[in-house]
Amino acid sequence: MAETKIFAGPRVRRVRNGLGLTQTAMAEALSISPSYLNLIERNQRPLTVQLLLKLASVYKVDLDDLQGESGGTASQLREIFADPLLAGEIPSPQELVEVAEAAPNAAMGVVKLYRAYSEQAKRLSDLSDLLAREGHQTTLSATRLPIDEVRQIFESRPAHFALLDGAAESFHTALGASDDLASALKSWLQKNHGIIVRSLPVHVMPNLRRRYDRHSMRLFLSERLSMHDQLRELAMEVSLLALTDEISQELEALALSNEEAKRIARFELARYAAHALMMPYAAYLAAAQRARYDIDVLRARFNVSFEQAANRLVSLAKPGSSAVPFFMMETDSAGNRFRKAGAQGFPQAKFGGLCPRLNLHAAFAQPGQILVESTEMPDGASYITISRTLEGPQAGFGERVRRTALMIVTETAHAKDIVYGEALSASASAVAIGPSCRLCERQGCLSRAEAPLTRPLGLDEMVTGLSVFDFQ
What order of strands is seen across the sheet that includes strand 210-213? Predict the structure, then answer.
């Protein structure tokens, strides 16, 4: 039977250095030559079973230490070198394994340094946000992905693009669509570009929402999508063809730094144009005011989804012809943010899922129900929050449904202008919320998930508060 061979040179070297031995002294104790031990330590010769047993008996070495894997450290290094700051520095995952094997202490030092760097970067971000709230501009910045750059720009400006709204409204009028916008858009594509629209079953197009085949001049839409989402995909394709100049002008005005960011922003602008085409500005604004911003009434009136109708409400910010200002945010049940847009008044934290007391999170316990609450910030500012869950593309048997929650917010001063104000009881007290736990200084909050950045922890062996993050 062939004997087992183990290459563990770095671990043998660690044992020798830990004992303060020279290669000659260890080689003599193991009854091998110093040159052979040197080859073992450089992983050019294996450790045989006999040598393993000799090491265990002479130096009382745990065999598991010599045969153990460094996968845990290597996986942590892989996570570190996936950071945009270090991406591309390591050409092969095997190199990280070799680093973890050859220098485990140094590798763990890198892990600790990266953890400290990440924590400091987070604190700088928090401090930057805190200073910005007090009216101080900062120049603090961090390594950002293109999607982060696009999000920051879209979220820091009004969710209104005048060129796209005007062009989409004119195109909608010229199209002459009555109650069947989908058929009108399909006819326009075929007549002007020779493109035929077809729906494909899930097994044919399992991973895509929309695909344009330039060779056959066909636009394929997934049957996973609802009819409303299929209409939006269709409207996006039309917008990219019919509103090319307007999209390009709005994209240029955003002053993005790289081509990948521009590609992402172009997609978002096409999505905006699609909503503008499905819900023309003037008609939608008039309908919204008549319906007192009842999203369910608007979705039925324009034959769109709840999410599409809410998105369009947030974009009604044309100077001189604006609606009640709304802020909007969409997250999943883990607090991951998908979209944030709208009025600048609502406090927008740069981290986490905002305050855990918002009904945005409670909506997941009541799918499909609209939750309305009056909320109050520590500075006394009050808001009405309207939240509801959304269902993603149709899932097949055995697939988990993608469910998110959408929250739209406006100041309580607009309660009389919106239908949701009627759900607020005059006697009910407002829910006390904050920007996020790391910036909130409310005492005794049962929902607190983190200590505030601005206060030291109130650790006292004699007194225990309601939260493990009690502070002084």
Answer: 196-200, 218-222, 210-213
